Automatic annotation (TrEMBL):
Residues reported in the UniProt entry to bind (6S)-5-formyl-5,6,7,8-tetrahydrofolate: 22, 85, 124, 458
Top EC group: hydrolase
Keyword line: Cytoplasm, GTP-binding, Hydrolase, Magnesium, Metal-binding, Nucleotide-binding, Potassium, tRNA processing
Origin superkingdom: Bacteria
UniProt-recorded name of the protein: tRNA modification GTPase MnmE
Self-association and partners: Homodimer. Heterotetramer of two MnmE and two MnmG subunits.
One GO MF term attached to the UniProt entry: metal ion binding
PROSITE patterns: G_TRME
Database matches in NCBIfam families: mnmE_trmE_thdF, PRK05291.1-3, small_GTP
Length: 458
């Protein structure tokens, strides 16, 4: 299919040292040449060179910009098409004017994610790699970034392709069997389906097990801080933020602007909920009432419950423990610099096996222990080390779950002695579903929707 030529500003909207207008497509060089004035034309420039010159409006003859223009010829480029990158001085108006000129002289404005979409459509990367490009941009911690980078480089794709290959081999075996239906072959085929199917099932299960961690790395672990008034919730928030540097994002909500803060606690991105509420020195239970607090707490993946070492456990504390039933939580007994009036044994009993940490936030004590407890809760054991091929994308998780179910159905059909061609249907379905992870056999509307979530110019 013949593609048109697209252009966009590929650097953030704002003032910077340099701003880049990127053009991709068959007319990229021709379009840029209409605007470029240098010692020779870009058409004559060798590929992968950067060329000094000026950008001129061909209609008025006005010089708009002093520039360095990169010429990158197909196919060894990001999109596998001809690419021009015009490096402007980074003022918003000049970058915008250069973009406007490219749009008048042969390019059309790119849609969000369209450069990466072309890299996918032109076969440089598959869908899971393209999705990882977006994760890379949005990564909140080094660890999340490493995971995304792994996926950009195709680590998940390799695994999925290997699984599909194995499924395909069993399907091929079945085909042979149907064509030459000998008694022995049938039995062998069923046995082979069981062996291969079980191996695939285990590998898919392993990928799904990593998904929980992957999702946390990608989206952050939603965390609430709760506790009676004056126990030290704000102090805890401030300690976590100060030690770890928070990223604050405003998310326009329907009723009000919710402020979300991310802090990176030893590789775990905590998404602290309702921090505005905490800062306003209001206790969430007091402000929202028990029912809504219950919901906020239930929706969170981690609760940090703060108690006061200097006061005996009250009924209100016990009520909070009630709200935390069955939930991941860490109990923080704060103000250990003051006289002990709280029974640590009682707190531990209420904690019901969950970590209990003592702190004096005033004296900066116990924060390390708290951070270790948070990390241990989510990156226990083998996850700590090398395996960074987490599945973190909910689309991928859903597909892997479907694939697992299909393989399990094939296995139980084989077990109960169903004819091989019946078993084959389930295996084929698993193969197809896995194909959707890497973008084979996915619908165009889905592809459009996935790429539309990208940033402009990516
Ligand atoms: N100026 C600039 N910097 C950038 C990008 C860009 O588009 N422009 N990138 C945009 O996100 C990232 C780099 N990603 C890239 C990925 C692949 C290829 C590429 O040309 N791949 C070819 C050839 C590889 C080779 O020469 O060996 C290929 O894979 O076939 C280029 C950039 C980050 N930095
Ligand atoms: N002695 C002592 N005081 C502390 C400690 N941590 C916090 N405080 C003090 O306790 C008071 C309440 O702390 P905050 O962090 O505002 O407590 P809070 O739970 O957010 O309070 P509310 O917003 O009223 O619910 C402040 O005066 C803090 O300085 C501690 O470890 N030891
Ligand atoms: K407070």
């Amino acid at each position: 299919m013949e593609m048109d030529t697209i252009a966009a500003i590929s650097t953030p909207m704002g003032e910077g040292a340099i701003g880049i207008v990127r053009i991709s497509g068959p007319k990229a060089v021709e379009t840029a040449d209409k605007l470029y004035v240098g010692s020779s034309s870009l058409a004559d420039a060798a590929s992968h060179t950067i060329n000094y010159g000026h950008i001129q409006d061909p209609e008025t003859g006005d010089t708009i910009e002093e520039t360095m223009v990169s010429v990158l010829r197909a196919p060894k480029t990001y999109t596998k098409e001809d690419i021009i990158e015009i490096n402007c001085h980074g003022g918003l108006t000049s970058v915008n004017r250069v973009l406007q000129l490219t749009l008048v002289h042969g390019a059309r404005l790119a849609e969000p994610g369209e450069f990466t979409k072309r890299a996918f459509l032109n076969g440089r990367i598959d869908l899971s790699q393209a999705e990882a490009v977006m994760d890379l941009i949005r990564a909140k911690t080094d660890r999340a970034m490493n995971v995304a980078m792994n996926q950009v480089e195709g680590r998940l794709s390799e695994k999925v392709k290997k699984l599909r290959q194995e499924l395909l081999e069993t399907v091929a075996h079945v085909e042979v069997n149907i064509d030459y239906p000998e008694y022995d072959a049938e039995e062998m085929t069923l046995q082979m389906i069981q062996e291969k199917g079980e191996a695939v099932r285990q590998e898919v299960q392993h990928l799904l097990t990593t998904a929980h961690q992957g999702k946390i790395l990608r989206e952050g672990l939603s965390t609430v801080i709760i506790g009676r008034p004056n126990v030290g919730k704000s102090s805890l928030l401030n300690s976590l933020v100060h030690e770890n540097k928070a990223i604050v994002t405003d998310i326009p909500g329907t009723t009000r602007d919710v402020v979300e803060e991310y802090v990176n606690v030893r590789g775990v991105p905590l998404r602290l909920l309702d921090t505005a509420g905490i800062r306003e020195t209001e206790d969430i239970v007091e402000r929202l009432g028990v029912e809504r607090s219950r919901k906020v707490i239930k929706d969170a993946e981690l609760a940090l419950l703060v108690l006061n070492y200097n006061e005996a456990i009250t009924d209100a504390d016990r009520e909070l423990f009630q709200l935390l039933k069955g939930q991941d939580a860490i109990i923080i007994i704060n103000k250990t610099d003051l006289e002990q009036k709280l029974s640590v044994e009682e707190a531990e009993e209420l904690a019901d096996g969950r970590p209990v940490i003592t702190t004096s936030l005033l004296q900066d004590e116990g924060i390390d222990e708290l951070e270790e407890a948070i990390r241990d809760l989510f990156f226990a054991g083998d996850m700590e080390g090398g395996d960074l091929s987490y599945v973190s994308n909910s689309r991928h998780i859903a597909l892997l779950e479907q694939a697992k179910r299909a393989v399990e159905e094939a296995l139980s059909a084989a077990e109960s002695g169903m004819p091989v061609d019946m078993v084959q249907i389930d295996i084929t379905r698993a193969w197809e579903v896995l194909g959707e992870v890497i973008g084979e056999s996915v619908q165009e509307s889905l592809i459009d929707q996935l790429f539309s979530q990208f940033c402009l110019g990516k």
